Amino acid sequence: TGRLEGKVAVVTAAGQGIGRATALAFAREGAHVLASDLDAGKLAGLDGPSIATAQLDVTDAAAITAYAQAAGPADILFNCAGIVHAGSLLDASDNDFDRAVDINVRSQFRMIRAFLPGMIARGGGSIINMSSVSGVPAGVPNRFVYATTKAAVIGLTRSVAIDYVKAGIRCNAIAPGTVQSPSLEERIRAQGDYEQARAAFVARQPMGRLGTPEEIAELAVYLGSDLSAYTTGHVHVIDGGLSL
Ligand code: NAD
């Protein structure tokens, strides 16, 4: 039997990349998965006996409330949605900053607020928040807004963990290094010289390769499952050695 047999798992940004790989891994491990994304088109092909898909914008508070009400109680919540702003402090506008806080951080506040009461009523749950090694523990150039929001995720994670530990809730963060995903591919292409830009991303990974969404999904499965019952409030780094 799977490691998530009988569990209900909610995954945001499940249309592509790490979110999609995780929705598939959760389903493979026996969970009933509620997979959502801003872009409904990206959810194509995910629907099936163990995955129900829906369009959901994690910045839309009313939509999140309605989604959670329709979903009912969940055992696992994976807050995967996030965007990358490329640039240093002097490259960032107020709007860039606000947008990133909204999508990368406030979204997690809103999703947890919507699903936590159901978890508490059930006597437990596992919340997994997407951070990044650029938040902690590494310093990554030209990721000012991104790193600021991904570090905020860690404070959010610890606070939820300590406040609800007695209610059986665990809350952990995942901090990946560079992972091959559609948006990473876009960031590489945006730099002009494709081969050179890709080589630069690979060069900062001591293992000499990028991570795969499936490798990150395995960590999410572990954190969602009862096998990780003794860990809460921590950042689980999975970065190919980037932060060494
Ligand atoms: P991606 O960036 O390729 O895809 C992101 C998905 O998020 C898309 O399907 C998009 O439609 C969805 N999305 C965007 N805004 C949304 C919103 N408002 N509401 C709901 N969904 C929305 O996927 P990825 O690169 O695997 O990134 C997933 C998460 O992992 C992000 O939080 C990212 O910051 C984090 N992360 C990625 C890497 C990496 O190298 N790829 C490294 C560390 C952390």
TrEMBL record:
<keyword id="KW-0520">NAD</keyword>
<dbReference type="InterPro" id="IPR036291">
    <property type="entry name" value="NAD(P)-bd_dom_sf"/>
</dbReference>
<dbReference type="InterPro" id="IPR020904">
    <property type="entry name" value="Sc_DH/Rdtase_CS"/>
</dbReference>
<dbReference type="Pfam" id="PF13561">
    <property type="entry name" value="adh_short_C2"/>
</dbReference>
<keyword id="KW-0560">Oxidoreductase</keyword>
<dbReference type="GO" id="GO:0016491">
    <property type="term" value="F:oxidoreductase activity"/>
</dbReference>
<dbReference type="InterPro" id="IPR002347">
    <property type="entry name" value="SDR_fam"/>
</dbReference>
<protein>
    <submittedName>
        <fullName>SDR family oxidoreductase</fullName>
    </submittedName>
</protein>
<dbReference type="InterPro" id="IPR051122">
    <property type="entry name" value="SDR_DHRS6-like"/>
</dbReference>
<comment type="similarity">
    <text>Belongs to the short-chain dehydrogenases/reductases (SDR) family.</text>
</comment>
